[in-house]
Amino acid sequence: MDVVWTDLHRHQNPKLEINLGQPIPTYERAERAETIRRQLETDARFRFVGLEEHGRAPIEAVHDHGLIDYLETAWPQINRATGRSEFAPEAMLHVGLRDGMSAARPPHGAAAAFGYWCYETATPMVEGTYLAARASVDVALTAADKVLAGASSSYGLCRPPGHHAARSVFGGFCYFNNAAVVAHHVASTTGTKVTVLDVDYHHGNGTQQIFYDRDDVQFVSLHGNPNRAYPWFIGHEDETGAGKGAGTNLNVVFEAEAEDDEYVDRLGIACESIAGFGPSMVIVSLGLDTYWNDPISDLALTTDGYRRCGEVVKQLGLPTVVLQEGGYDIEAIGRNAHAWLSPFV
Ligand SMILES: [Zn+2]
What is the predicted pLDDT for the residue at 2? Predict the structure, then answer.
């Protein structure tokens, strides 16, 4: 199995996130990806390959151009204005702020505009954020190229992750939605249907938003109930798609402490829905924060449970691109990624 990798992820190196109002060491750190790389390197069945650049166009196809421009240009202005080496927003655009009025416009200052384009406080910007976020998209697209060229599966070791980034807003450690860029790219260039299967602990709100009214991309997400889990305001089971996309969005929510057997059973049922949709490719948003010891989540999967999950998805018999999303128990993340991927090699 090809593993697409780049050192450029190391340019995304913030030290802090604002968590419940307090600055804490960020959970989304470079060591996550490095640990997975070291683990997969011990198994010769995984072949490491570099990324190929795909330019801005595939990102422009799913994200607001203003969002891309902001991420590309804001850092020098913020750094000049604040003197800080990393930055998170002070005020964010709330839906009630201009209730009954025309839509808000982004403020001119890049520091103030942060809260126009970002919806929370755990997703800071540093000097290398844009470089790393662009590289992460290229890792995902390169992984998809391998499958489009005939491989049965591939793995993009994406960092930063992507599934919380919506069309015109970023957050949740995510800047560009890697899985959504790939899904749109594959659906639009092949004229076939595609499924994004998101197994991160947190609902893939960005991916759902981007494809909510489309009938060519199915979104299936298994995640902690948003009544008690980030991203809080989206990801309920009664969100099933709209317009042409009615019926193409499937949310499966879990209560705390759910274990392997329940998870594998419900993943199997979700896969029946995928088979019914009839996609030409499955893009997996692979989060490993459903692990029992994850520091920010509350499910209870084990390393062997991940192997079983990979087995269930493999049994779909569809070309599969696996893209890394979350997972914050750094001690375990390498062997958990290896376990999930092992049925595919
Ligand atoms: Zn997550």
Answer: 98
Quote the CA–CA distance of 11 and 339 in Å, as a whole number.
28
Q: How far apart are CA 300 and CA 294, in angstroms?
A: 9
What span, in angstroms and rounded, lies between the C-alpha atoms of 252 and 149? 32
The mean per-residue pLDDT over the stretch 265-290 comes to 98
Average pLDDT over residues 224-231: 98
Q: Taking phi first (over 0 means left), then psi (-120 to 50 degrees means alpha), and beta for anything else, what does residue 285 get?
A: beta
- Amino acid (one-letter) located at 211: F
**Is 54 in contact with 138 (CB distance < 8 Å)?**
yes
The answer to whether the pTM exceeds 0.85 is yes
Q: Which of 63, 164, 184, 185 is catalytic?
A: 164
| Burial classification of residue 287, based on how many CB atoms lie within 10 Å of its CB (0-12 exposed, 13-18 middle, 19 or more buried) | buried
Q: What is the mean pLDDT of residues 154-160?
A: 98
164 in catalytic set: yes
Considering the domain delimited by 2-63+128-344, tell me its CATH architecture.
3-Layer(aba) Sandwich (3.40)
Go through 205-232 and write b for each residue having 16 or more CB atoms within 10 A of its CB, e for each that does not: bbbbbbbbebebbbbbbbbbbbeebbbe
Calculate how far, in angstroms, residue 58's C-alpha sits from the geometric centre of ligand 1. Answer: 24
Question: Residue range 4-27: average pLDDT?
Answer: 95
What single letter denotes the amino acid at residue 251? Answer: N
Q: In the predicted model, is pLDDT for residue 90 greater than 90?
A: no
Domain ranges across the chain: 2-63+128-344
Cα–Cα distance, 340 to 338 (Å, whole number): 6
CA of 199 to the centre of ligand 1 (A): 9
> What pLDDT is recorded for position 106?
92
Summarised one tens digit per residue, pLDDT across range 95-107 is 999 999 999 999 9
Residues with CB under 5 A from ligand 1 (ion): 200-202, 287, 289, 326
Assign 21 a pLDDT band (cuts: 50, 70, 90): confident
